[in-house]
Amino acid sequence: MSKINKCLFPAAGYGTRFLPATKAMPKEMLPVLTKPLIQYGVEEAIKAGINTMGIITGRGKRAIEDHFDISYELEHQIKGTSKEHLLNDIRDVIDGCTFSYTRQNHMRGLGHAILCGETLIGQESFAVLLADDLCHNKEGNTVLSQMVKVYEKYKCSVVAIEEVPADEIHKYGVIKADELETNIYRVSDMVEKPSREDAPSNMAIIGRYILTPDIFDILRDTKPGKAGEIQITDALLTQAKKGKVIAYKFDGKRFDCGSVDGFIEATNYFYNHSKES
Fold it and tell me: Where does the sequence pass through the membrane (predicted)?
């Protein structure tokens, strides 16, 4: 199994929970303080040793490409002023990474979005990061960095999990698993958005994955599920039945920035953290 060199960012969704703000602006560009969600995700990938980013976009998402590009006019305007340093972080990201883009023409689920990224990934293991799941670890040991270490030990697909309240279980893919060591489980079953009664546990998959390249062939053979969407959970279940999916209960805090409540919570948390540091 190869080292994890590439990270895929599915970013083609409409962000309807944030309308009308997302009518003309990608939800991935919503700022927590002064930085868009997707930049937090890219910086997390960089800290995990990844420098090749593949982004799955859609109509109306050009702002993402522009963000990860040099703005000569802006840089010329603020060069030599007190504001010049404000672009340091994004320039470091641009200079340190390679970005590639492809489009998901039809909204057919996360599994389909990942399959659209096959040409950007090739035949190697890779990370997937959903930008609206914003994660933070105060010690700087990012969730993706933790997962890379798990992958290096077990050499198979890895999903990040956290325990969620029973009344939220229907929002997630939920696993059934046996504990191998502290916070590490081998998955035997998983269900996409089950009812509280049908859920095999309270351990839900969140927006961090490391996937082995055979996932692409599995996704091609995966039939659409709810709402005609191809679910990554269904594809991972195929691997799990062969004992090839590890679930990792990560160390850190996660914010569901796909919801208004989670977005506000993240904003307050990062604001307070910035005052402490």
Answer: none
Q: Backbone phi, then psi, for 261, in 5-degree steps?
A: -60, -45
Which ranges constitute the DSSP H helices of 16-156?
A: 37-47, 62-67, 72-78, 88-96, 110-116, 118-121, 143-154
Divide the 277 residues of the chain into consecutive groups of 10 and give the mean pLDDT of each group.
89 89 93 96 96 93 92 89 90 94 89 95 96 90 96 96 91 91 94 87 94 96 85 94 96 94 96 85
Q: Using CA atoms, how far apart are residues 246 and 155, in angstroms rounded to an integer?
A: 9
Query: How far is it, in rounded angstroms, from Cα 149 to Cα 182?
Result: 14
pTM, rounded to two decimals: 0.93
All domains in the chain, ordered by first residue: 6-276 (3.90.550.10)
3-state secondary structure 123-191: CCCEEEECCCEEEECCCCCCHHHHHHHHHHHHCCEEEEEEECCHHHHHHCEEEEEEEEECCEEEEEEEE
What φ, ψ does residue 241 adopt, rounded to 5°? Answer: -65, -20
Burial profile 158-185: b = 16 or more Cβ within 10 angstroms, e = fewer: bbbbbebeeeebeebbbbbbeeeeeebb
Quickly count: other Cβ atoms within 10 Å of residue 66's Cβ: 11
Coil vs helix vs strand at 237? helix
